[in-house]
Amino acid sequence: VSVLLVQCSPRPNSASREAAGLLAARLAMGGKLVRRDLVADPPPLVDAGFVDAMRRRAGADDPAFAASEVLIAELEAASSVVIGLPMHNYTVPAVLKAWVDQVVRIGRSFDPTPAGKVGRLADRPGFMVVATGGVISGDGPTRQPDFVTPYLISVLGTIGIRNVCFLYLEALRDAAARESAMVAARKWISAQIPLVPEAVS
Ligand SMILES: Cc1cc2nc3c(=O)[nH]c(=O)nc-3n(C[C@H](O)[C@H](O)[C@H](O)COP(=O)(O)O)c2cc1C
What we know:
By secondary structure, the chain is of the alpha/beta class. 38% of the residues lie in helices and 19% in strands.
């Protein structure tokens, strides 16, 4: 077992960090937990050198792909991946978009084919822990658009990770709302990730 935990929240008291951390620790029980903090260590933005290397189909040893190779290797080595993220303006935070642009790489993590893009990574469970200040579920008048869910399903699916599920911590207006969201999150985590005897021993 090797769990990759990707964290994206810039907030010290982050709900997504706390819940994603709990989930990853439970998944990794008895195994390895690799942490990738995109706030402490933001991935480079796509620049001219990166685009040129992509266009030339440069090899994995091209310096323009240095960060990309590290991040893809982390994913390849993981038996499951947990991403904790806040919703920022209806979609993923910019640091996670930067990570996606390094990881979803043509000719490396996916291939274009006449039938569409085909992922090169083996499928593995992906757990997305999404925190929002407002409401994204139901059909109430304050419901906001959610570009996080379809986006993450699409980009992870592109590289071969199709077994993806979502844990939402919604409407985090105040400390009480955060506390009840965490109670629900803990329940969800225990239900989703039963402690199998091998993992406990
Ligand atoms: C720049 C920025 C944009 C945000 N945009 C949204 C948004 O579109 N919808 C929403 O519900 N909450 C939005 N929020 C609120 C955060 O999603 C919310 O505070 C969440 O709890 C942050 O997750 P965290 O506790 O893990 O840091 C935004 C916060 C920031 C800082």
